[in-house]
UniProtKB/TrEMBL annotation:
InterPro entries found in the cross-reference section: Arf-GAP_dual-PH_domain, PH-like_dom_sf, PH1_ADAP, PH2_ADAP, PH_domain
Protein name: ArfGAP with dual PH domains 1
Gene3D superfamilies: Pleckstrin-homology domain (PH domain)/Phosphotyrosine-binding domain (PTB)
Keywords: Cytoplasm, GTPase activation, Metal-binding, Repeat, Zinc, Zinc-finger
Keyword rRNA-binding recorded: no
Organism: Propithecus coquereli (Coquerel's sifaka)
Amino acid sequence: RLLLSLELLLREQWVRAKYERREFVHLEKQEPYSAGYREGFLWKRGRDNGQFLSRKFVLTEREGALKYFNRSDAKEPKAIMKIEHLNATFQPAKIGHPHGLQVTYLKDNSTRNIFVYHEDGKEIVDWFNALRAARFHYLQVAFPGASDADLVPKLSRNYLKEGYMEKTGPKQTEGFRKRWFTMDDRRLMYFKDPLDAFARGEVFIGSKESGYKVLDGLPPSTQGYHWPHGITIVTPDRKFLFTCETESDQREWVAAFQKVVDRPMLPQEYAVEAHFKHKP
């Protein structure tokens, strides 16, 4: 459903660009997605109160950052999001708006979520394309030997899987609690609410060569869970126990985890793994 709504939004704007705005005939009318600078106002969800307020956003490739300001006349930004660690994905169902966009970046090596939308579908698609263009230019510098075909999949990414599961703590003696989980590449994050700005916790999931495994079910002695369909993720340091409400949910989560575990780790991912191991 999410991919369908995203496809319809992007297709609508492509059709409008071709036939309504005639951008493909009149090159001067084309949006300067790769101009390296963009500013405008987006409705942003408040971190604490959940209220959407108009905020000024500025994308500047020269500084390698997306910034937003709490006031239009503010000199200092409220947040600076480095293009290096930035991702944008359409989330209309989660945000509750057909043009809802979720932007994530790393803040002190933890994931920070920002939820925005614009009433105009063209405007939000233009922002999405501008962020991808900025990512593309960053990656061209960061990976000078890579081809365009290698870089395009790195411009933005959809989450491998999202949804509710129950989890217990590291001692596995406390009760299981319902949390919203997001599988973003090798980061499994869990939130009390899907629209939380920060995750309650993040789990790194490496490859089977590094000792990571995904198992159906829970250890026999496990207690305190409500949902019947268990999953155990084995890491070099500990086991993580989750439960799903339905068998189909369990199958989908196991498939998503297995896909990550079966993929060999890249050199830079070992550094991420080391950070997770040394987290306070």
